[in-house]
Amino acid sequence: MTAVLRRLAVPRCSLWRCLAVSLRETQRLYHHVLNRDGTRVLAGGRSSLAACCRSESRWQHTEAQESVEVDLKRLEGQDEGIAEVLMCRHRARNALGLVFVSQMRELMSTLSNDSAVRVVIFRSLVPGVFCAGADLKERALMNNSESDLFVHGLRSLMTQIALLPTPTIAAMDGVALGGGLELALACDLRTACE
Known about the structure:
Pfam families: ECH_1. With about 190 residues, the protein is an alpha/beta fold. The protein is about 40% helix and about 20% strand.
């Protein structure tokens, strides 16, 4: 724990500032209003919650092949060096499915080689849920060999997160079940709301 705190104690990025930025962003995203058509709108603008994770995207994914379920947001200004991994699989409540895991593994590979990133914060854009664990609906459609490969991929992802060279923080604003709790435990620090 002391080693993690020492790594965070650099002039540009203190632990408390990282946590404050994460909580401030979470509060900003969860204070929303309803549009006339019933869709939820973020408090700071006119974009919907679903559009938020697409509009803040720093990755080029093709919408036709697969939707963005995990995204990256690099903070700027005073908070430069902080990267937020945004989990935004709204319908499945951030369940760990094939696309989600492959996008997360790709992102972890990129972050492990990025020297500009000093802290990685894992955060959910789904209100009340950090991560719902494995996607059991997808899992039911897999045969034994596909299921084994998927479980191996999940283990590999958790190892990648645990071995990231930068400190990692799980900003938990909701439930973390099964594999979602494993994801939080793979991080160096965990923060949770009431």
